[in-house]
Design goal:
Distance between the termini: 31 Å
CATH class: Alpha Beta
Oligomer: single chain
Shape: globular
Structural class: alpha+beta
CATH topology: Trna Endonuclease, Chain: A, domain 1
Number of helices: 2
Largest sheet: 5 strands, mixed
Radius of gyration: 15 Å
Number of strands: 5
Order of helices and strands: HEEEHEE
Strand order of the largest sheet: 1-2-3-4-5
Length: about 120
């Protein structure tokens, strides 16, 4: 793996770690991270009450490449849909008991430490 790819993976892992801490603080139970099928990946699969939640996470260190929520494109949604369908069919999950969420994360822009987290619940694919 080249250095640039390693750097992006490290940044992505950092964002996912922040998202996991955020979700756990909201009483979500993390089931799986980085679920992969072929070329598609779901960052986090979690449980929130009776629902299984599939979560895409996007971390941006700043807005020079756009806001993290801007990355939730139709192409990304299509890839997520394939991954979710594969998971629920493989594991015999009731489609009425799932939800798709998106989490965007950026460092706070002022001098305080921490991150801003945008949690969009129940997105449509």
């Amino acid at each position: 793996m080249d250095i640039k790819k390693n750097s992006h993976r490290s940044i992505g892992d950092n964002g996912e770690n922040i998202a996991v801490r955020y979700l756990e603080s909201k009483n979500f139970t993390i089931i799986k991270r980085n679920y992969q099928i072929q070329w598609w990946e779901m960052d986090i699969i979690a449980r929130d009450g009776d629902f299984l939640i599939f979560i895409e996470v996007k971390y941006r260190k700043d807005e020079s490449h756009g806001h993290p929520l801007d990355t939730f494109t139709p192409m990304k949604r299509k890839a997520m849909k394939r991954t979710v369908l594969h998971y629920i069919m493989k594991n015999k999950i009731d489609p009425e008991k799932i939800r798709i969420d998106f989490i965007g994360i950026m460092p706070k822009s002022d001098i305080s430490e921490g991150h801003r987290v945008w949690h969009i619940r129940g997105v449509e694919l």
